[in-house]
Design a protein that fits this description.
This protein is α+β, with helices and mostly antiparallel strands. Helices cover 26% and strands 34% of the residues. It has helices at 11-15, 22-39, 89-97, and strands at 2-9, 42-47, 55-60, 63-68, 77-85, 106-111.
Length: 121
Amino acid sequence: MDYMLMFFETPDELAKRDNAEAPAYWAGWMAYVGALHESGIVKSAAGLQPPSMATTLSLVGGQRQVQDGPFAETKESLGGFFVIDVPSLDAALDWAARAPCASNGRVEVRPVLPPPPGAPT
């Protein structure tokens, strides 16, 4: 079964990507990423630019409304994701618990919706 692991980090944690703490921050993530890839369960993955780089779109009366930055004020931001293929939710939760952000942010684990019958692959 495919599960998406979504990594939410605080602004302070995300700031570590580009400050004096960057080597330790990236070392933790690279060890985790390496373990995921070595396991053979990774289907796709990506890190994300910081929320300040986001653009939010909505349709109001059929017209596009575009806003720079994230729409919602939050204490944590989505920093990246993995889609993994594991046999159970428990296995996905085990991988989520190993993420560097699990101790000071959170990891959302969600089953991936399978394509509907007849959908192009």
